[in-house]
Amino acid sequence: xxxRLPRVLGTLSGGVEESLVLLRQHDPWLIAGLIGxxxxxxxxxxxxFHAFGASPDLAVIWMGYLIGELGGLLPVPGGIGGVDLGxxxxxxxxxxxxxxxxxxxxxxxxxxxWVPAVLGSLAFVMLRRSxxxxxxxxxxxxxxxxxxxxxxxxxxxxx
Length: 159
What we know:
By secondary structure, the protein is mainly alpha-helical. It has one domain. The chain contains five helices and two strands.
């Protein structure tokens, strides 16, 4: 485990550095995507409240979301437990009934965790299939022939 720590820390710092580089570019599409992700995430929480028959003010849901998501800083996989309790607790402090807050947060978390997991699994299977077909095409290609490689376009295979 100790031998992996430097590699894990290096990977983590590389990810943080890459994120900072992207944010410093002030790309309007990136900023729009970040704001859109946040907005749609809050709208999912708002929708689950309405699905369970509760309708707290949108400002309460925003504040509950922003403060409650801090529970995701707890080091547990997927923020399970920390985010849930943080969201419910914050919403209850804003006078949302416990039952409504719990039902809405559990519905929201089910959507927020399982939809990306299912879609990500499908994307992973499709990517593996594409890479497998690509590897077969490269292996069967004659030296000097060309193969379409994901992310690089058409490349010439050397012998």
